[in-house]
Amino acid sequence: MAEHHITTPVTDEVIGKLRAGDAIFISGYVYTGRDSAHKKLIDLIEEGKDLPVDLKGQFIYYVGPTPARPGKAIGSAGPTTSYRMDSFAPILHKLGLKGTIGKGTRSEKVKESLIKYKGVYLAAVGGAGALISQSIEEAEVIAYPELGPEAIRKIKVKDFPCIVINDMYGEDLYQDGKRQYQK
Amino acid sequence: MKTINLSEVRDKVKDMVQEANFELQDDVLKVIKDMQAKEESPAGKAVFEQILKNSDIAKKDKLGLCQDTGLAIFFVELGEDVKLNKEDGLGSLKEAFEEGVRIGYKEGYLRKSVVEDPIRRKNTGDNTPVFIHWELEPGDTFKVTFIAKGGGAENMSQVRMFAPAAGKEGLEDFVVEVVDTAGSNPCPPIIVGVGVGGSFEYSALLAKKALLRKPLGSHNPDPFYEDMEKRLLERINNLGIGPQGMGGRCTALAVHVEAFPCHIASMPAAVNIQCHSHRVLKFEL
Ligand code: SF4
Fold first, then answer.
1. Tens digits of per-residue pLDDT, A56-95?
2. Per the CB < 8 Å rule, is A178 touching B242?
3. B185 touches chain A (CB under 8 A)
4. What is residue B131's three-state secondary structure?
5. Complex-level ipTM
């Protein structure tokens, strides 16, 4: 299990170094989005319109934070379950998105798209939203403010902790880890 | 006869929803630490460390332990001899609970996670309605149990109607199957609440009540079910799913089973999954 510190946006070369089971610390900007925001992005793509964000080399974090207390960038901000975004992820990877961050198993289609478009799926620890919020320095709503906690935010992170679940080589930590400790 | 002021109920509720969301209780922390000591996988150990650090930060900064601060679910044991004093603009006991949740979720910067219709999905904006299970008791008891129930773990729960012949093997296989299917989704290490018997809806209620048992990890007083809980915990922890599903020894922190009489033709069974962010609090007036 290797450890990597990476800064966004990332290149294919960086993605190539990340293997299932590795610990990753992300710095730079990351975009947030969950169910409703994804639906809106996909609608724009289908209509052939420009997206409000340039996803090339970027990561999307699946999160719907608690409201920020005064003077804080964000509230508790742990990952939400990723399978609800499974139908959207391959479309965004095709446009250059390099990674998604959430928790829980992805579909075969998502895993295939990671191989095809050179991407990774990372997990943050579900239920550690208070701890994770400490690695978020700034948060700015950049699209769909009407969605409240589900709006797209551009967040500035410093050493944001995650683990690689699925890499671009088809490896899967959930499957491998379970196999290793099953009795 | 005991008289209870509704404003007191509202204020207690307002405080309890916040405290539950900011602090893991001692019994939960104890089980987490016991399991941490037994975890063998490096990824699993790292997860336990993050869970404990998270609980320190949440408590200190009054931040939600998790961003999903849950549906507000209450179990209320209400004595028949209790007199309720309607005051401070509160017209009913239910209103006192709703007001408490409304104020507590706002004041505590907790997330509002309720939509007003399951299909049309507009957020109600104040985390109401609350979900209250009333139990009428003789005497003048007034006991309230609160659980903040997040969506991720609740979504992995199941009810099944068995024929009586399924017996204990059928029930135990079902519980293990539900946990295995849930995998990494409900944020393991999880807590497994099992309800067996009653009727279709009653089994689900029993499963939720099983989650509320204090202290966490204590056993059913009936040795038959105590043995079942121990067997189930071992089988579940041999699945290898591990903390956050990354592989490891600890998939579940505890299994609680509650049983109840049922029809001669049925054996209803329900499994309610709960995450490590086990936010349960009680108060009595
Ligand atoms: S399952 Fe529990 S810990 Fe995980 S996101 Fe939901 S409420 Fe939080």
1. 999 999 999 999 999 999 999 999 999 999 999 999 999 9
2. yes
3. yes
4. strand
5. 0.94
Domains of chain A: 3-181 (3.20.130.10)
Percentage of chain B with pLDDT > 70? 100
Q: Residue B247 is nearest to which of A23, A131, A178, comparing CB atoms? A: A178
**Separation of first and last alpha carbons in chain B:** 13
Which residue of A34, A61, A74, A76 to mutate against B (max B Cβ within 10 Å)?
A76
Which of B147, B1, B145 shows the shortest CA–CA distance to B79? B1
* pLDDT per residue as tens digits for the range B132-149: 999 999 999 999 999 999
pTM: 0.95
- Tens-digit pLDDT profile for residues B71-86: 999 999 999 999 999 9
Hunting for tokens 């393991």 — which residue is that? B188
B65 touches ligand 1 (CB under 6 Å):
no
Q: Give the rounded percent of residues in chain A with a pLDDT score beyond 90.
A: 95
Phi-psi region of B278 (alpha: psi -120 to 50; beta: other; left: phi over 0): beta
What is the atom index within ligand 1 of the atom nearest the CA of A129? Answer: 8
Pick the CATH number of B2-20+65-149 from 3.30.360, 3.60.20, 1.10.357, 3.30.310: 3.30.360
B11 within 8 A of B100, measured Cβ to Cβ: yes
Ligand 1 and B153: CB distance under 6 A = yes
The partner residues of A30 in beta bridges, in order of sequence, read A155
For chain B, positions 153-182, list CB contacts with chain A under 8 A: 155
Q: Which residues in A lie closer than 8 A to residue B238 (C-beta atoms)?
A: 182-183
